[in-house]
């Protein structure tokens, strides 16, 4: 091999390494925006949300009654993925959420929420197309729902601003399949709002979801369902 040919071969190998290794590393770790942080009660809006039911804000005595989902509610997913050989995290969210909670005494007796699956956004148009199409098939399964199946006993009326932890057992319907799930939640009464932050692990095959891996992205068998639900009355 001539000296010139050897140099061309070395240059070609370097170019391939730059494209397949260095390029993705720089994109994921330098250029690409960091994934959104996990949802928490600290993400709650500073202004009193509205539910469209005539709520005017201000202090609300006690916690008993019917509460309706208000502005500021979010449902999202968080999935660990390998992109071009680099570890990354995919996060998508929707604010198109409706639902309600009923509290009798210090017991949550009923709770539901529904999210429009066609409205999820991750900041990556190609990922969103895959999510809406072959992964979640949103034209066929446009909504996902959760319904509480076991009452949650709070024990006492929480003080304003006090965090209360619990586990919400219920039925999650996703991709047309209903499964029992347990969502670990933190709730807080804050004046005229009652907010709930929680998450649970979803195994894709349990809900008939085909392997979400595609193209340069490879993912595992499960992901996190995250919720931040703000109720008012």
Overall description:
The protein is of the alpha+beta class. It has 2 domains: 1-32; 39-232, Lipid/polyisoprenoid-binding, YceI-like (Lipocalin, Beta Barrel). The protein has helices at 3-31, 125-135, and strands at 65-69, 74-83, 86-94, 97-104, 107-116, 143-148, 152-153, 163-174, 177-190, 193-203, 217-219, 222-232. The protein is elongated. It starts with a helix and ends with a strand.
Summarize the structure.
The chain has 233 residues and is α+β, with helices and mostly antiparallel strands. It folds into 2 domains: 1-32; 39-232, Lipid/polyisoprenoid-binding, YceI-like (Lipocalin).
Outline the fold blueprint.
Blueprint: H1 3-31, E1 65-69, E2 74-83, E3 86-94, E4 97-104, E5 107-116, H2 125-135, E6 143-148, E7 152-153, E8 163-174, E9 177-190, E10 193-203, E11 217-219, E12 222-232
Antiparallel strand pairs: 1-4, 1-12, 2-3, 2-11, 2-12, 4-5, 5-6, 5-7, 6-8, 8-9, 9-10, 10-12
Strand pairing plus helix content: what structural class?
alpha+beta
Q: Radius of gyration in whole Å, from Cα?
A: 22 Å
- CATH H level of the largest domain: which superfamily? Lipid/polyisoprenoid-binding, YceI-like
Please work out how many helical segments DSSP would assign: 2
What's the main sheet like? 8 strands, antiparallel, barrel
**Spatial sequence of strands, sheet with the most strands:** 1-4-5-6-8-9-10-12
Helix content: 10-25%
Shape, principal axes of CA atoms: elongated
Uncertain ranges: 14-32, 47-60
Instruction: Give the N-to-C terminal Cα separation.
Output: 80 Å
Number of domains: 2
The name of the CATH topology of the largest domain is Lipocalin
Helix and strand run: HEEEEEHEEEEEEE
The share of residues in extended strands comes to 35-45%
The CATH architecture assignment of the largest domain turns out to be Beta Barrel
CATH class of the largest domain: Mainly Beta
Quaternary structure annotation: single chain
């Amino acid at each position: 091999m001539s000296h010139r040919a050897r140099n061309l071969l070395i240059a070609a190998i370097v170019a391939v390494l730059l494209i397949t290794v260095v390029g993705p590393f720089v994109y994921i770790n330098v250029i690409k925006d960091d994934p959104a942080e996990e949802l928490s009660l600290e993400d709650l809006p500073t202004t009193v949300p509205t539910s469209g039911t005539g709520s005017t804000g201000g202090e609300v005595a006690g916690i008993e009654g019917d509460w309706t989902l208000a502005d500021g509610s979010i449902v999202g997913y968080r999935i660990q993925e390998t992109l071009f050989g680099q570890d990354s995290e995919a996060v998508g969210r929707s604010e198109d959420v409706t639902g309600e909670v009923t509290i009798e005494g210090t017991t949550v007796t009923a709770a539901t929420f529904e999210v429009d699956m066609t409205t999820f956004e991750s900041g990556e148009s190609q990922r969103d197309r895959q999510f809406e199409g072959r992964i979640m098939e949103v034209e066929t399964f446009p909504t996902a729902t959760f319904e509480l199946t076991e009452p949650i006993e709070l024990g006492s009326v929480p003080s304003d601003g006090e965090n209360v932890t619990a586990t919400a057992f219920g039925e999650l319907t996703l991709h047309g399949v209903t499964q029992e799930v347990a969502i670990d939640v933190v709730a807080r009464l804050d004046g005229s709002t009652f907010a709930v932050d929680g998450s649970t692990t979803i195994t894709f095959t349990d809900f008939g979801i085909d392997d979400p891996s595609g193209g340069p992205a490879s993912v595992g068998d499960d992901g996190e369902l995250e919720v931040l639900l703000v109720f008012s009355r």
